[in-house]
Automatic annotation (TrEMBL):
Pfam families: AdoHcyase, AdoHcyase_NAD. Its main location: cytoplasm. This is Adenosylhomocysteinase. It is found in: Cytoplasm. Its EC number is 3.13.2.1.
């Protein structure tokens, strides 16, 4: 039995899902293929994901392949209640999600999704897999395999595997080339700035934007912030990534140094306390704090609350103004949660088209391949990643070259010299 906020919102949800679907041609092609081939026939899927119109496209594709789907939210602030209603009322999925639910409700919904006894699991941050291994070990024997689509979740899965705790194979969908390129770089780059602008209506041109982390998400953010006229400062712990940022012309500083000069701070690291009390103490009046990492731990919100003498809410949606004892005001966006999903709409549908295509094809592969995989973190097969890119190019009416037979022979021979 689903748990959603308002079933009467289904009509609005369907209209928005159909709008997003028009920008997801790759997933549409896979859905048509799945309807014919039924690669997931009879399988139960439990997913913990953002309840958005784009996610609805993935759920419908899995259903077309023969799966029954139970869906819980991976972030209460990103849940679209009309999408949840449409998935239940019009598309026959089980959904356990309400916008703005508290931590207790969040985990209750994950437990409800798991009650369906899934064969495959899809996770967005590893909370569902974590819950399985800690609270619902009775279900571990029925789970064949799963997918994880976030950097944070993959980090947690690798640690579980390292400790010998992971009980079934998980595929790091997050680590495909297509997802790094489209989702992390172009999607996060655009949608994070979209969330900041919607929440604050601030002009980014001329501002100093400090970006913590120069992975694929950080690179995308830095490129787009520079394009909008901002001065960009990168903070990093990885010497190679820091060097890459410097050679691309970005300033690179420790956070302790950058904290005093930044106008906008964006965290995209997957780690905790990246912006801590020491940094908050020296920030300038009006500094904006935004997180685009999966969990709300990258900015030390507890320290911010302890340092503040007043907190003003409601001036603008998804903004909280923390007033320090010296009169400085620090503006926290979306409670320190994912700003692109809480203050905006997340990635454009065209971006999620590729990420969810990776997910759908990987699920179909796992339906049979799971028996050959160990309880570890596995990569998506290269041919799946290549197929998604090929389908996307075709949808854009772009053709590319093919190797001739002579070129194939040359690449596969070690006997031919210069």
């Amino acid at each position: 039995m689903s748990d959603i906020a308002d079933a009467s919102l289904a009509y609005e949800g369907v209209k928005r899902i159909e709008w997003a679907d028009r920008s997801m041609p790759v997933l549409r092609q896979i859905r048509e293929r799945f309807a014919d081939e039924r690669p997931l026939d009879g399988l139960k899927v439990a997913a913990c994901m953002h309840i958005t119109t784009e996610t609805a496209g993935l759920i419908r594709t899995l259903q077309a392949g023969g799966a029954s789907v139970a869906l819980a939210a991976s972030n209460p602030l990103s849940t679209q209640d009309d999408t949840a209603a449409a998935l239940v009322q019009e598309y026959g999925a089980e959904v356990f999600a309400r916008a703005g639910t508290d931590r207790e409700g969040y985990y209750a919904h994950i437990h409800q999704a798991l009650e369906t006894g899934p064969d495959l699991v899809l996770d967005d941050g590893c909370d569902l897999v974590n819950t399985l291994h800690i609270d619902r070990t009775d279900l571990l024997g029925t789970v064949k395999a799963g997918c994880e689509q976030t950097t944070t979740g993959v980090i947690r899965l690798h640690q579980m595997a390292l400790e010998g705790a992971l009980r079934f194979p998980m595929v790091a969908v997050n680590d495909t080339d297509t997802k790094h390129m489209f989702d992390n770089r172009y999607g996060t780059g655009q949608s994070t700035l979209d969330g900041i602008i919607r929440a604050t209506n601030t002009l980014l041109a001329g501002k100093t934007i400090v970006i913590a982390g120069f992975g694929f998400c950080g690179r995308g953010l830095a490129e787009r912030a520079r394009g909008l006229g901002a001065r960009v400062v990168i903070t990093e712990i990885d010497p190679v990534k820091a060097l890459d940022a410097a050679l691309q012309g970005f300033a690179v500083q420790p956070m302790a140094e950058a904290a005093a000069n930044g106008d906008v701070f964006i965290t995209v690291t997957g780690n905790r306390d990246v912006v801590n009390g020491e940094h908050l103490a020296v920030m300038k009046d009006g500094a904006i704090l935004a997180n685009s990492g999966h969990f709300d731990v990258e900015i030390d919100v507890r320290a911010l609350g302890e340092m503040a003498v007043e907190v003003h809410r409601g001036s603008r949606p998804q903004t909280e103004e923390y007033v320090m004892a010296d009169g400085r005001r620090l503006v926290l966006l979306a409670e320190g949660r994912l700003v692109n999903l809480a203050a905006a709409e997340g990635h454009p549908a065209a971006v999620m088209d590729m990420s969810f295509a990776d997910q759908a094809l990987t699920c179909a592969w796992l339906a049979t391949a799971h028996a050959t995989l160990s309880p570890a973190v596995h990569d998506v097969p290269k041919d799946i990643d290549t197929e998604v890119a090929r389908l996307k190019l075709a949808s854009m009416s772009i053709s590319i070259d093919r190797l001739t037979q002579d070129q194939e022979d040359y690449l596969h021979s070690w006997r031919l010299g210069s």
